[in-house]
Every structure is written in structure tokens, then in C-alpha cells.
């Protein structure tokens, strides 16, 4: 039985030391399917009487940790520039490194880049690499960085970080030494470190083109085996620049059903279960058999309206849908109260978030009036959803009933768990959507610019693109914040994301698992960071 009784909502300041950086992103979670544990052997132990995850004792060397994620089917790849689903990112960060990554407060933290500094005009940035080696012993050099970024920026490809790297003039940028670079920018960019930390901007060896047979990276683990849609096994990289991992091996197994992940965890077949349903977590929290890690308010929850096709090419219809949604009902029903209400803007509680806009509440009379003005009375629309992510099917059913009160017929269509994210990127008109963590400016660059490769709402406005470039080039923080607020006001009024909530991100672990980050939103540096985890 699902407990849907109201719970106190967390405050916007969810993480200690929060610097109000923008947050949330990677279209998250993978598609779901059957969980096959064949070949999932290892030295990891099952649940026992140890302390909670992340607590107690000194790190212990050895063992294989088995981590279950929802996967992407037989078409999965280890190409880090193609990483899109959470399992893709977890595997990529185990094998590869970026120049920077986001801390829990969403500020850029140095990784392969030891330091960076701009010139006076902010259109040239000097980056110095730390001493690091690839798994085959070659040093990581400036040439590897330039090759990786130029590969991502290939106009013939649709790599995830392509829009984020757009400010860099890669033809003019150059290596100034084996471990030093000068990035020449197309315009002054005050927050260039966010570009270095961009989702998917991993560094690969110069000339690398194939990644599924024997990928070579500089990350904490090196490749051992990979079967798309089933399993990937990586071994400890002893020469890792930040110190060798505690584990001997990490195995990523695909468990597309949440119940399969939970049962495997309870049965000792895995030690880490990514993404648990709030009701499941509540049932097991404090029971002593498994550990529950809650990353508060970590995942944006939304309905995505495609603004380039009927009926959502009419902004009056989009505004009507904003007024149909009862956000509190959606959070209580779809998330079992494990989250907080949204206000149709990404990044609640973080730097540049426009928190001065009125909180939206249902107004069915106004919604009906807008639909009538748009000639959309008795509107029928299909809402694509899937059991691909926690709360999606529940949210679709709840919103269907809410829309009916405004005279709108919503037909819920269940999509494939294996291909949902690729299907809804271009197809359909309305879908369930969610996102993990990234700064607000990164969300804009990857999702809301004309050439963004994951522009699911099909929001394409040259004047909006120009405002983004203006914000990037504004040296003064107050001036930059004013431009971002102007952009968000427009999205609030007529955008394609109906953002109804921010969900807790929930992870289950065996009681033997230690060192799991407990304050890192999904997709930040310390999320799914298995080089710091050990088995007690």
C-alpha cells in the first residue's frame, strides 16, 4: 500500500554550504526492462549488520561492488560524449575525466584542470592540466583536450556537450605546452569554468574513435568487459591521479524495473541500487536491512510541451496548461510527498533562479478562457509517459484527471522503457520529463538554445539565444543575474516546460557499503562516485 499522507516539504537550501548555484539536468534516467543477473558474480557481500552507507570505519581495500541502474538496451555505448542516461554518466565518470566538474553547490571544481585564469577581457582563458595518465600509461596532454573538444563540436555529430562548448573558438585555441592550453573564446565569458564542467565534456586520448571494445580513459577505473544492456565491469586504475579506488572492481548491471533492483539488493545480488521509488524507500527506511540515501529535491519533474507544433505552438494553450496543473497534488501523489512544488522554472533555490515570480496555483476558469481564445475548446492531446522513471505514470494519471476539470481530454500513452528518451526528444507533443543537476546557464545552453542537441520543447528563438550570449559576456554578477531573470520571466510566461516539482533522489545500498555521497545532487561530482566507496 502506498502511503500518500502529506509530509513537510524540504526547504530550498537542501545542501550544507549551498552557494545558490543553478542546478539540475541530464535528461535522466534510463529506460527500463528485465533484470538479468547472469554473470553478476563478484566478491561483494550482501546486507549485514554494518553501519549506514557513508558512515563508520576506515576505508578497506578490495572487493567488487555491483551497482544496478536502469539501462538503455542493446544500443548502449561507452562513448563518453554520447552519455545521456544516468547509467551512461556513471560508467563514463568511472572510465574518464573532465577538466572540471560540479560540486554539491553546483560550482565548478578542478579535475584534470589543475587551475584556470582569464585575461582582463574574459575572452582568453589559460588552463593548466594536472599530471595524470591514461589507462595505457600515456600522459594526458593539451593535445588530448583539444582533440576531445573538437570531436564534441563536430558539426556532423550531435554530442551532448556541443552547445555548451559553443563559446570556444577551437580553431584559434592552442596548446602552449604539454600540460597548458589557451582557450580563445568567441566572446567574453565570465563563467567559463562551467563550460569545462559541462555535462558530457570528457577528455579522451587524441585520435580515439571507438569506445565499446576497449576504451581508454584517465578515470579511476579501467575497462574489463562490456555487454550493452546487461553489464559492464571495470577494474581499479592504480595510477589514478587522485589515488587508486578502494574497490578492486565495479560492475554496472542493468535492472530496468525498480522492483528488480530492490529485490536484488535485498537478496544480496547487488550492493547499490540507483533510483528507488519514494514509497519503496519509505517502506525500508529504518528497517535495518538496507541503507537509504536521500538527495533532497535533486530531480526536476515536468511535463514537456513541444512549442513548434499544435496545439502547443499557441502560447495561450501553454499558459492554460500551466494553470491546469495542481502542483501540490502532483508532488503528494506522484512523489509520495518526497519533494517540493515547482514553478515552471528550472533550478529552484540556486544561483540566478528567479524566485521573485508568483507561485503558480490552479486557475481552471482562466485556463478555460485561454483555451477558448485559442480556439482549443474540447481539446484532446496525447501525453507520452513510461515506467522509465519513478513517478512518471502516476503523474500522467493525476494530470489527466486535472485536465479533465478544465474540459481537456488527455490520453495517456505508455512508451517503451528502452527507447522512451530518444522517442520523446523529437516525437509527440506532450510528455513526462525530468532532469538531474547542472547550473541554470548550462540548462539553458543544452536545452533551450536554437542549436541545443537536447531541446525537447523545441524552444527556438534567436532573441533568446542573444540574451544567453549577453549573460555569458556580462562581467558584473548583478548585471548577469538581471539578464538571466529576464530570460526566466519569458520562460515562465510562455515556455514549454511545465515544471511541477523537484523530487528527492533516492539510492539504496547494502549495509556493507561505505563512502556513498549523501549531499550530492544527481549528476554532480560526488554522485555515483565509486572510487571513494568501499565494502566494510
Description:
With 536 residues, the protein is of the alpha+beta class. Helix content is 24%, strand content 21%. It contains 13 helices and 21 strands. It has helices at residues 86-95, 142-152, 192-196, 258-266, 278-284, 315-324, 327-334, 364-373, 392-404, 420-426, 440-447, 462-473, 477-494; strands at 64-69, 97-98, 100-102, 108-110, 113-118, 124-129, 174-177, 180-184, 202-203, 221-227, 231-236, 249-254, 272-274, 290-305, 339-341, 380-385, 409-414, 430-435, 497-510, 513-514, 534-535. A hairpin with a 2-residue loop joins strand 7 and strand 8 (180-184). The chain starts with 63 loop residues before the first strand and ends with a strand.
Protein traits:
four-stranded antiparallel sheet; single chain; 24% helix; disordered N terminus; 21 strands; alpha+beta; 536 residues
Chart the SSEs and their pairings.
Blueprint: E1 64-69, H1 86-95, E2 97-98, E3 100-102, E4 108-110, E5 113-118, E6 124-129, H2 142-152, E7 174-177, E8 180-184, H3 192-196, E9 202-203, E10 221-227, E11 231-236, E12 249-254, H4 258-266, E13 272-274, H5 278-284, E14 290-305, H6 315-324, H7 327-334, E15 339-341, H8 364-373, E16 380-385, H9 392-404, E17 409-414, H10 420-426, E18 430-435, H11 440-447, H12 462-473, H13 477-494, E19 497-510, E20 513-514, E21 534-535
Parallel strand pairs: 1-12, 1-13, 16-17, 16-18
Antiparallel strand pairs: 2-9, 3-4, 5-6, 6-8, 7-8, 10-11, 11-12, 13-19, 14-18, 14-19, 15-19, 20-21
Helix pairs in contact: 6-8, 7-9, 12-13
Amino acid at each position: 500500500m502506498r502511503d500518500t499522507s502529506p509530509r513537510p516539504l524540504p526547504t530550498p537550501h537542501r545542501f550544507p554550504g549551498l552557494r545558490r548555484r543553478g542546478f539540475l539536468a541530464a535528461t535522466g534516467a534510463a529506460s527500463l526492462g528485465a533484470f538479468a543477473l547472469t554473470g553478476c558474480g563478484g566478491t561483494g557481500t550482501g546486507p549485514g549488520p554494518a553501519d549506514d552507507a557513508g558512515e563508520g570505519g576506515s576505508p578497506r581495500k578490495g572487493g567488487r561492488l555491483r551497482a544496478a541502474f536502469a539501462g538503455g538496451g542493446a544500443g548502449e555505448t561507452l562513448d563518453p560524449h554520447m552519455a545521456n542516461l544516468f547509467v551512461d554518466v556513471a560508467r563514463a565518470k568511472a572510465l574518464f575525466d573532465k577538466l572540471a566538474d560540479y560540486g554539491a553547490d553546483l560550482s565548478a571544481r578542478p579535475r584534470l584542470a589543475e587551475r584556470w585564469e582569464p585575461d582582463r577581457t574574459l575572452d582568453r582563458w589559460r588552463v593548466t592540466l594536472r599530471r595524470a595518465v591514461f589507462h595505457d600509461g600515456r600522459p594526458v596532454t593539451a593535445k588530448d583536450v583539444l582533440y576531445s573538444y573538437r570531436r564534441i563540436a563536430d558539426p556532423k555529430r550531435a554530442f551532448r556537450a556541443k552547445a555548451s562548448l559553443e563559446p570556444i573558438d577551437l580553431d584559434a585555441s592552442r596548446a602552449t605546452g604539454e600540460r597548458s592550453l589557451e582557450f580563445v573564446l568567441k566572446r567574453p565569458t565570465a563563467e567559463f569554468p562551467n563550460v569545462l564542467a559541462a555535462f558530457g565534456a570528457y577528455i579522451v586520448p587524441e585520435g580515439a574513435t571507438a569506445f565499446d571494445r576497449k576504451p581508454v580513459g584517465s578515470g579511476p577505473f579501467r575497462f574489463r568487459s562490456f555487454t550493452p544492456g546487461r553489464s559492464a565491469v571495470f577494474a581499479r586504475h592504480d595510477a589514478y591521479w587522485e589515488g587508486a579506488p578502494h574497490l578492486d572492481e565495479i560492475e554496472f548491471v542493468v535492472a530496468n524495473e525498480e522492483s528488480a533492483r530492490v529485490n536484488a539488493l535485498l537478496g544480496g545480488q547487488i550492493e547499490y541500487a540507483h533510483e528507488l521509488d519514494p514509497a519503496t524507500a519509505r517502506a525500508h527506511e529504518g528497517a535495518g536491512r538496507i541503507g537509504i540515501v536521500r538527495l533532497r529535491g535533486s530531480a526536476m519533474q515536468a511535463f514537456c510541451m513541444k512549442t513548434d507544433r499544435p496545439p502547443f505552438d499557441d502560447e495561450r494553450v501553454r499558459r492554460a496548461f500551466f494553470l491546469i496543473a495542481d502542483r501540490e497534488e502532483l508532488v503528494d501523489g506522484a512523489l509520495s510527498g518526497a519533494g517540493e512544488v515547482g514553478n515552471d522554472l528550472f533550478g529552484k533555490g540556486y544561483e540566478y533562479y528567479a524566485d521573485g515570480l508568483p507561485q503558480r496555483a490552479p486557475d481552471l476558469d482562466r485556463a478555460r478562457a485561454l483555451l477558448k481564445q485559442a480556439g482549443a475548446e474540447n481539446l484532446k492531446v496525447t501525453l507520452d509517459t513510461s515506467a522509465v522513471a519513478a513517478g512518471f505514470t502516476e503523474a500522467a494519471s493525476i494530470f489527466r484527471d486535472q485536465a479533465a476539470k478544465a474540459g481537456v481530454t488527455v490520453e495517456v500513452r505508455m512508451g517503451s522503457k528502452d527507447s522512451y528518451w530518444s522517442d520523446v526528444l523529437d516525437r509527440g507533443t506532450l510528455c513526462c520529463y525530468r532532469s538531474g543537476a547542472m547550473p541554470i546557464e548550462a540548462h539553458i545552453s543544452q536545452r533551450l538554445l536554437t542549436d541545443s542537441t537536447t531541446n525537447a520543447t523545441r524552444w527556438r528563438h534567436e532573441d533568446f539565444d542573444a540574451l544567453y550570449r549577453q549573460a555569458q559576456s556580462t562581467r558584473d554578477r548583478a548585471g548577469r543575474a538581471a539578464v538571466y531573470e529576464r530570460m526566466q520571466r519569458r520562460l515562465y510566461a510562455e515556455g514549454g516546460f511545465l515544471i511541477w516539482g523537484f523530487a528527492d533522489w533516492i539510492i539504496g545500498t547494502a549495509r556493507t557499503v561505505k563512502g556513498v555521497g549523501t549531499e550530492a545532487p544527481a549528476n554532480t561530482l560526488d554522485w555515483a562516485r565509486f572510487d571513494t566507496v568501499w565494502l566494510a
